[in-house]
């Protein structure tokens, strides 16, 4: 049996004595220098990783403005002049505009559907007692830990038999279904934390269950919907596996697929600078959205892992 | 609140549950059933063959190879990613210079800057990240070998993805790169909620930074680390490893199947080779591995819960 190592100092005996002291560790000079060295060390390490994170992204942006020949001859040199034609070529000839539109349609539809259906199911599961409640809840939540790939083979034929293969709405329905486990799980917990009195008052006043839900509960659940919405937005925008299997029509491709397709076919066409422009185009909107909404993004994503 | 309650419940659950059952639950059940047939996926006819697919799997060298790679993904990837993330998060939250009159323990200046930047790769599609690094790894004109030449290591020009003994590690490195930031932010949030008195008294008792980390930070963060481990492991066995391996090492999955992981093998058998039944069999193996992994991590990681 394992026993836990408790941390040596306990809060009870330390808090009272220590927190009053102004300079908490009046240690010898050596100690102070240790703090300084550590500071330099930690900044050094942290900056190195920051550079490692940013460099590939900047390199991609820089490369998207270069000519094909200089991409290969000198990968790190600055572009001789800014080849904006790479970007326009990618947007029009390489179909980036179509991929973008498809992605916006699929993600927009899925996101709305996921939030509406997910909150409906979560509300019922959180607030009503009925036989089978627990079973349905665990049925949903269990889906979080299963490898999607196992289901993909039969899923392909289910979707195919329904005539939904290579359609935008088919992809939307599948995205919604695969987003439900986490969404239901997260929102069920959230609806449980909301006060019951408001909903009960509305019901006594003669509002139906449905009306109470849409007019009272849903607006109250807004913070939860935003968190889970961001989580789903990023997941669905970046989805690669589902469209790769279910969506093979070149006209219906989403961004991730389209880019990979372009990269593969580049072997014959050789428009590498256009491909880089496409890559950066796909990167920038999400990075921009992240910088603007970074607090919500971080909350939305970390809420997903913590539970 | 009884009036019309059941009608309401059924009305609200029907659509989400229906979609979920049709597209998620039903395919899962079917795939286990298909693993006992000889279905090719191309024609509707098939017959039951009992455990034939499972016997075949046990004698399939490529299956064992991809299982080995998948296990490496599930063990090495979380270990490296989470260790790095803990290290960075500790540096961000505890590695700061002691300011006069300030708390004994403080974060570095610009800690929020680091957290924002580290998170960048997390919001990008793993497919885009994989494409980007496939270029960077290119042995002749890629960015990495070009740096090596630039700093005078022109003689060291690995083939990276083209080298069977390196390819798997290159692919893993990309996943580490893209996931570390997420865990830095996650662990930072946990560390920020640990009361500073704990650190202060530890420092008074003469504990160094390493001791503080292992005796205070890590035990108090253990729950988060553990759920992060399971989360990362499931990703590494599933969707994420599929995208990087499929995109970066095209063809059979790396030179000589050197990077094939279970998910990719399922995909290839089903959609390239027209062996749907055998693919679902490997899928069942993948399911078993995933569940076993989660169970083992939860079991081994069980500690007494520390409250603060």
UniProtKB/TrEMBL annotation, chain A:
List localization entries. Cell membrane
Name of the molecule in the record? ABC transporter permease subunit
Q: Which UniProt keywords apply?
A: Cell membrane, Membrane, Transmembrane, Transmembrane helix, Transport
Q: How does it sit in the membrane?
A: Multi-pass membrane protein
Query: Which Gene Ontology biological process is one annotated for this entry?
Result: transmembrane transport
Instruction: Name any GO cellular component annotation.
Output: plasma membrane
Similarity comment text for this entry: Belongs to the binding-protein-dependent transport system permease family.
Recorded hits in Gene3D superfamilies, A to Z, give: MetI-like (1.10.3720.10)
Region called Disordered, residue ranges: 1-21
The ABC transmembrane type-1 domain is annotated at: 100-293
Question: Which organism is this protein's natural source?
Answer: Streptomyces broussonetiae
Q: Which residues cross the membrane?
A: 40-62, 99-125, 137-159, 171-191, 212-234, 272-293
UniProtKB/TrEMBL annotation, chain B:
Q: Which residues form the ABC transmembrane type-1 domain?
A: 67-297
Q: How does it sit in the membrane?
A: Multi-pass membrane protein
Q: Which coarse location class describes where this protein primarily resides?
A: membrane
The residue ranges crossing the membrane are: 7-29, 71-95, 116-137, 166-187, 229-248, 276-298
The reply on keyword Ubl conjugation is no
Q: Provide this UniProt record's keywords sorted from A to Z.
A: Cell membrane, Membrane, Transmembrane, Transmembrane helix, Transport
The answer to whether the entry has keyword Transmembrane helix is yes
Q: Which GO terms describe its biological process?
A: transmembrane transport
What name does UniProt use for this protein? ABC transporter permease subunit
- What highest taxon heads this organism's lineage? Bacteria
What are the GO cellular component annotations? plasma membrane
Q: Where in the cell is it found?
A: Cell membrane
The record's family statement is:
Belongs to the binding-protein-dependent transport system permease family.
The residues the entry assigns to the signal sequence are none
Question: In which organism is this protein found?
Answer: Streptomyces broussonetiae
The root-end lineage is: Bacteria, Bacillati, Actinomycetota, Actinomycetes, Kitasatosporales
């Amino acid at each position: 049996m394992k026993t836990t190592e408790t941390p040596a100092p306990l809060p009870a005996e330390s808090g009272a004595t220590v927190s009053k002291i102004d300079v908490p560790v009046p240690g010898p000079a050596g100690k102070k220098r240790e703090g300084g060295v550590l500071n330099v060390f930690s900044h050094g390490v942290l900056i190195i990783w920051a550079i490692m994170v940013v460099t590939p992204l900047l390199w991609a942006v820089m490369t998207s403005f270069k000519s094909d020949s200089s991409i290969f001859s000198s990968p790190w040199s600055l572009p001789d002049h800014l080849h904006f034609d790479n970007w326009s070529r990618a947007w029009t000839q390489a179909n980036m505009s179509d991929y973008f539109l498809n992605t916006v349609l699929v993600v927009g539809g899925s996101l709305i559907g996921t939030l509406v259906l997910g909150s409906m199911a979560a509300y019922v599961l959180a607030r009503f007692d009925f036989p089978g409640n627990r079973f349905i809840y665990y049925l949903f939540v269990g889906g979080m830990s299963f490898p999607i790939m196992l289901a993909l083979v039969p899923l392909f034929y289910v979707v195919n038999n329904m005539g939904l293969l290579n359609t935008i709405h088919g992809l939307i329905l599948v995205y919604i279904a695969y987003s439900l486990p986490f969404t239901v799980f997260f929102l069920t917990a959230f609806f449980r934390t909301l006060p019951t009195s408001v909903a009960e008052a509305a019901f006594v006043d003669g509002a139906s269950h449905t009306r109470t839900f849409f007019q009272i509960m849903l607006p109250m659940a807004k913070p939860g919907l935003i968190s889970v919405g961001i989580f789903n937005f990023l997941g669905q925008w970046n989805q690669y596996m589902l469209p790769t299997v279910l969506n093979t029509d070149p006209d219906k491709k989403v961004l991730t697929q389209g880019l990979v397709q372009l990269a593969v076919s580049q072997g014959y066409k050789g428009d590498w600078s256009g491909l880089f422009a496409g890559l950066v185009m796909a990167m920038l909107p999400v990075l921009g959205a992240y910088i603007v909404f970074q607090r919500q993004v971080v909350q939305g994503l970390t809420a997903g892992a913590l539970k | 609140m009884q009036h019309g309650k059941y009608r309401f419940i059924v009305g609200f659950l029907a659509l989400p549950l229906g979609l979920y059952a049709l597209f998620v639950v039903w395919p899962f059940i079917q795939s286990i059933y298909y693993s006992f047939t000889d279905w090719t996926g191309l024609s509707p006819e098939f017959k039951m063959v009992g455990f034939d697919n499972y016997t075949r799997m046990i004698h399939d060298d490529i299956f064992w190879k991809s299982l080995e790679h998948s296990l490496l993904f599930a063990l090495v990837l979380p270990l490296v990613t989470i260790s790095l993330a803990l290290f960075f998060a500790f540096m961000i939250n505890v590695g700061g210079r002691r300011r006069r009159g300030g708390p004994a323990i403080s974060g570095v200046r610009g800690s929020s800057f680091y957290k924002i930047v580290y998170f960048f790769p997390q919001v990008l599609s793993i497919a885009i990240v994989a494409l980007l690094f496939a270029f960077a790894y290119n042995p002749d004109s890629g960015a990495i070998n070009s740096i090596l030449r630039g700093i005078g290591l022109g003689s060291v020009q690995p083939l990276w993805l083209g080298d069977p003994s390196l390819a798997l590690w290159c692919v893993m490195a990309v996943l580490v790169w893209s996931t570390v930031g997420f865990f830095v932010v996650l662990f930072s949030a946990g560390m920020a909620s640990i009361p500073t008195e704990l650190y202060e008294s530890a420092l008074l008792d003469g504990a160094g930074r390493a001791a503080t980390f292992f005796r205070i930070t890590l035990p108090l963060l253990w729950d988060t680390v553990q759920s992060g481990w399971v989360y990362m492991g499931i990703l590494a066995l599933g969707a994420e490893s599929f995208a990087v391996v499929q995109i970066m090492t095209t063809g059979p999955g790396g030179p000589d199947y050197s990077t094939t992981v279970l998910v990719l093998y399922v995909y290839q058998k089903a959609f390239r080779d027209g062996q749907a039944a055998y693919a679902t069999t490997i899928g069942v193996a993948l399911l078993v591995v995933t569940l076993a992994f989660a169970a083992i991590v939860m079991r081994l990681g069980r500690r007494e819960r520390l409250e603060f």
